[in-house]
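Q: For a teaching handout, I want to show students what a protein-ligand complex looks like in token form. Below are the inputs, and the small molecule is zinc ion. Please produce the holo structure.
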Amino acid sequence: MLDVYSSTITCVSQNFSPPQPPPLIPPPSSPPTVSRYELQKRRDWNTFGHYLKNHKPPLILSRCSGANILEFLKYLDQFGKTKVHNCSCPFYGDPNPPAPCNCPLKQAWGSLDALIGRLRAAFEENGGRAETNPFGVRAVRLYLREVRDTQAKARGIAYEKKKRKNVKQQQYSI
Ligand SMILES: [Zn+2]
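A: Here is the structure, written as tokens, with zinc ion included.
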């Protein structure tokens, strides 16, 4: 909600204000300990807000379509850390390639999937209507499924069976 964000801003500005004696007890208005999920969700939401603002031409949240979300996901690939082999690579389908190759790094499917889940929630928490939630549209679901299948084949990984070993794939950062 909005007041969560304004309290975040207050915290940040306090960090940059001239030194003051630290309060002995936190002010009663400070939010309770925020979970990592919530923090990540706020970061993702801010990142998406910056993306909209810097988009040419600038995008307005209420007019975002599924196509804009797909564009955002593809834009994030440049920050990815997951090697996704091309069909022509000798290591295509090899989960443990013996040598480096020139295939691109992308966002892992698991990262994108979790990201969309958080942004979908954030959209509605920030006043968006569920019926117009661009993160929940069919095109985005289909795209994620395609990424999952493509990456599973390229990396020789079956996502469904290796859920517990997916920790490494969550190293996405933006
Ligand atoms: Zn490769």
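A: Two things your students might notice: Confidence is low (pLDDT under 50) at residues 4-15, 165-171. The radius of gyration is 19 Å.
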